[in-house]
């Protein structure tokens, strides 16, 4: 999901402790952590990320993306997330876009992609699709 969320990947400003994966088959399943070098500098990436890595944002990163994009207060960000969660967890009618055991990072990522970029995750195609293109 994160690999396919291009809008989120463009926001990556590498910092110590960030978790990333390689896009290639080699080491693609093993998460890696950015660590500072001996001079306390973070390794440099080329601007277009041709180094073949993709970022797995933390909960704090996802929260910050939402807060900064909409210039929400802390309360406003949590309120928006709460509204999204309730709206998409319609368990009574069985029309749930989210499952009750969905990882909280996935819920935040889906919330951001739908709220900020108007895209939904299409599970069978494993890609983000504009909301108006969903059938």
Map the helices and strands.
Elements: H1 6-9, E1 19-22, E2 32-33, E3 53-56, H2 59-70, H3 74-88, H4 104-117, E4 119-122, E5 127-130
Antiparallel strand pairs: 1-2, 1-3, 4-5
Explain this structure.
33% of the residues lie in helices and 13% in strands. Helix 2 packs across helix 3 and helix 2 (59-70) runs parallel beside helix 4 (104-117). The chain is built from 4 helices and 5 strands, in the order αβββαααββ. A hairpin with a 4-residue loop joins strand 4 (119-122) and strand 5. The strands form 2 sheets. Strands 2-1-3 form a 3-stranded antiparallel β-sheet, with no helix packed on it. It is of the alpha+beta class. The radius of gyration is 16 Å and the shape is globular.
Give the fraction of residues assigned to helices: 25-40%
Major β-sheet profile:
3 strands, antiparallel
**Biggest sheet, spatial arrangement of strands:** 2-1-3
> CA-to-CA gap between the ends?
20 Å
DSSP helical segment count = 4
Beta-strand content bin: 5-15%
Classify the secondary structure makeup into a structural class.
alpha+beta
Summarize this entry quickly.
The chain has 135 residues and is an alpha+beta fold.
Notable features of this structure?
135 residues; alpha+beta; 3-stranded antiparallel β-sheet; globular
